[in-house]
Amino acid sequence: MVSGGTLFDVCYTIEENEFRGRRTLQLNIKDIKPAGSGEN
Q1: Contact between residue 27 and residue 16 where contact means Cβ atoms under 8 Å apart
Q2: pTM
Q3: End-to-end Cα, the chain, rounded Å
């Protein structure tokens, strides 16, 4: 659980989603971790 004010790093791709004839952009999250954790 992320509490208010907590910083984190997110790796994502931007994708186009089409549903019922409507196109929108969505962020597909690949990885998430605490900011500055130093993990690669």
Answers
A1: no
A2: 0.60
A3: 21
29 contacts 2 by C-beta, under 8 angstroms: no
Does residue 37 come out as left (phi exceeding 0), alpha (psi in the -120 to 50 range) or beta?
alpha
**Which residues, 6 or more positions from 28, have their beta carbon under 8 angstroms from its beta carbon?**
12, 13, 14, 15
Take residue 10 and report the two structure tokens written for it: 């997110």
Assess contact for 39 and 31: CB atoms under 8 A: no
pLDDT, tens digit, for every residue of 7-36? Answer: 999 999 999 999 999 999 999 999 999 888
Do the strands 22-34 and 8-19 form a parallel or antiparallel pair, or are they unpaired?
Answer: antiparallel
